């Protein structure tokens, strides 16, 4: 990847490393901030520390896994419908 | 009297008639000025029924005003203007005219005071949106347009059946809140839900919209589903079945968008997802929830148009729309990238964007009604929206790998249209009072509390983390995903083919039987009734013999008398 220095600064490995670091710090801050700003829960459990973080992460994980499984069944080649719908073009 | 019957929709329809005759700068002027004129006239409509007409003994109310109706008509007029600005230099005349007539239909629905007027404008939308799908110009667009038309005409028929039932039962064509309790009201509900892309026919949306042209899909994304939301607010507030329909749509949109490779189809699925939030809110049905549905519809139309515009610019500049062909475009398209990201953040309801200030009204309504399951489902869905539209769309289109494409950035008018949308997205996020003041019910809600912002930041940022950690699982493949449209696009086709070959077998059998029966019949006739006359024939059967002139004359007389008798009786 690091073939030359003409790459856009945004895709240089150093930048990407910095972005991961910066991102991780921001993520950690949003969780730690909860000790300063208490999150008001509406249904008890959503006021637990880091509830939003865990809930968001796990929801996404489940949705990705579910769609991945569904994809095994539902994915088809792009021309799947071609033979049934372009009969007047043959 | 006449001016009170003037629906603002008529301005758009006038525009649709003028666009084909105007040329050059005059056409551009029509495209840009008519929506502004419409917007002005929307705000001249006062509350209540403006005038009534009698049509077939029914009291027709072509124009009825209320803050809710004006809100939807306002965003439709704004969208017509921004869509026109985006499109006027590249779109063909037929596309602009169809878009204006389509928008006219949508605005007409907004002010329809009775079910008959509503139905007329509803069908107008179905017809001209089909033309917009065809504007894609490819064989795929042609086929998708036909499927789209069939679905919407079917929906129209179901709606009509329901309307007639309700009119017969109540004797009134008034638009008033009802619940799905009997056959007719169910038919109306189903007719509207088909336009809202509800299950099991959600597939029509992702099938048709991405097939349209660069600018056609911008118009398409705005009107049909949101007029359906308005109709639901007017007719079925608090119909609890809508909560579950809405939650299904929310999840359906996310899962299918995650599977999708075509950038504009990802956005189409996320329309279903977003409309799901609104449908769910109508189902909750409290003042807070209906406010939320209306406000979210307003915000959604703008940011979804912005997303379709940015995807449209990419298609216009590169000719590609599949994620597998795209990537790395941020280098040469910084404006489009930034505007696309603003749209993506808004749809994800990031704080300081319009999505945050409007969508949280809906989740607050779920909290107020103590609906824990609904609330947590909506929260999970908000995380999922960030996943499938908020990050996936910009990431795969503008970043990802370097596709080697170095297209120019957006032309000035497209950039201006996108910039205006982005401005509205942020304006409504920073100053939510503007939209709250337009809502049907009074708003006492404060979106920006430190606790709520922190909760959303945790939710969304950790969804973002999930996206990047799970990237290997989301590798794009050059595929499409089966949906319920498989039933008619594949199963129906195969069944027709099977039925066709069965018919063919039957046909062969019938013609063989015919030939054999014919041969047997000829033989029988010849043997018993006569033979071809020949000099040496034995003249054995009835018609084969030579008859005397007298007998023949008698027969002729008998036949003529029979004919005369038959003629008189």
How would you describe what is shown here?
- The complex is a heterodimer of chains A (90) and B (569).
- By secondary structure, chain A is mainly alpha-helical.
- Chain A folds into 2 domains: 1-37, no CATH class; 38-76, no CATH class.
- Helices cover 53% and strands 3% of the residues of chain A.
- The two termini of chain A are 45 Å apart.
- The model of chain A has no long low-confidence stretch (mean pLDDT 82).
- By secondary structure, chain B is mostly helical.
- Chain B has 3 domains: 1-236, no CATH class; 237-476, no CATH class; 485-516.
- Helix content of chain B is 71%, strand content 2%.
- Chain B contains 21 helices and 5 strands.
- Chain B has helices at residues 2-5, 9-21, 24-42, 67-87, 93-111, 115-134, 139-170, 183-195, 203-208, 216-235, 241-259, 263-284, 287-318, 334-347, 354-368, 372-398, 412-430, 433-436, 450-469, 486-528, 549-568, and strands spanning 48-49, 53-55, 58-60, 64-65, 479-481.
- In chain B, the strands form 2 sheets. Chain B has a two-stranded antiparallel ribbon with strand order 1-4. In chain B, strands 2-3 form a two-stranded antiparallel sheet.
- In chain B, strand 2 (53-55) and strand 3 form a beta hairpin.
- In chain B, helix 3 (24-42) packs antiparallel against helix 4, helix 11 packs parallel to helix 16 (372-398) and helix 14 (334-347) runs parallel beside helix 17 (412-430).
- Chain B starts with a helix and ends with a helix.
- The mean pLDDT of chain B is 92.
- The chains are: A mainly alpha (90), B mainly alpha (569).
- Chains A and B meet through helix 1, helix 2 and strand 1 of A and helix 7, helix 11, helix 16, helix 19 and strand 5 of B.
- Strand 1 of chain A pairs antiparallel with strand 5 of chain B, so a sheet runs across the interface.
